[in-house]
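Hi Q.,

Before the meeting this afternoon, I wanted you to have the adenosine monophosphate prediction in hand. No need to reply - just skim if you have a minute. The sequence and ligand are here:
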Amino acid sequence: MKHYILFGPPGAGKGTHAGAIAAKYNLKHVSTGELLRNEIAEGTELGKMAKSLIEAGNLVPDYVVEGMIEHLFLTTKGVAGFLLDGFPRTLRQAEDLDRILAERGEKVNAVISIMISDKTIHARLKHRATIEGRADDANEDTINNRIETYHRQTEPLITYYKGAGKYLEAPGEDGVEAVREHLFDLFNGLDSTYTKQQVVIDDALYRKLEEEARDTPRLRMNYDLRNGENDGSQRMLNVWLPGSKLVVHRHQNTNETILVLKGRMDVILYNDDGHETERYHMGGDSGIHGINVTKGCWHTVEALDMTITFTAKSGAWATNAPEDILEVKD
Ligand code: AMP
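Predicted structure with the ligand bound:
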């Protein structure tokens, strides 16, 4: 699981952008502020305790938000990771988060910060009060206290995460579209940061990828080996779990090289009528280690074990056009 922190003062736009980022990267968006507001709305004990603190612009105790976060880490399935919004907010929370993740063999992958001035925070919260009616945006004293609380308790996290080499920042004063573009640039860059360092393809990497593939609903995942987002080639490791379904498809402009590095899979070829013509059992002790599927040839794969392949194609990746997907006949 990946763990990204969307950081910034109140009113920076974390809530505005979190949904789109989470959807694009298959992350679970967790806003501790939102969770607390739900508790208040439902009138729970926790909500009753948090209400007066929130309405005064103070933070709720660390253990309260940490409890909520830990619960979500334990119960959330089917995502590539978490996008934490509004957490951590104190050094203690940041240290506890590191500990909680370390116990799970995970870590904070990156902190992406949206930065705005105090003047903009003030103006945005006042404006938001007229739209969303949040009690903690309405009152001048509360706004000032939240700004002060941010500087005193939350801002020191910037130094903490800079020290860990995990801090990235987008200017947040521009329009929504410009800020979003900047954030996507930062996230896209992160996705390919591993390609900027040496990647040793060893058992430890296999284990990490296998774990990630198990957590995905598609039962497969790929690990990009390109230079970056704008690299127009396709070079990747793929992890396939038995049961993962890949449509029968073709690539009209490129051969596809598939090498089985670990596990066993069938590569199946079809004619234009949708009938299976050849099936190559690859990996294990089959004596077949890979295949170069010729351009235009209909094909799919079926994993027999947890299987890891290396795949290379020419040109940039694109979704299969409808005419490049074949309906199969038995
Ligand atoms: P937000 O929606 O993130 O602006 O959060 C609204 C309020 O919820 C904050 O002003 C705090 O009172 C409380 N809150 C949210 N997240 C945290 C946190 N990580 N630690 C402590 N209090 C929090």
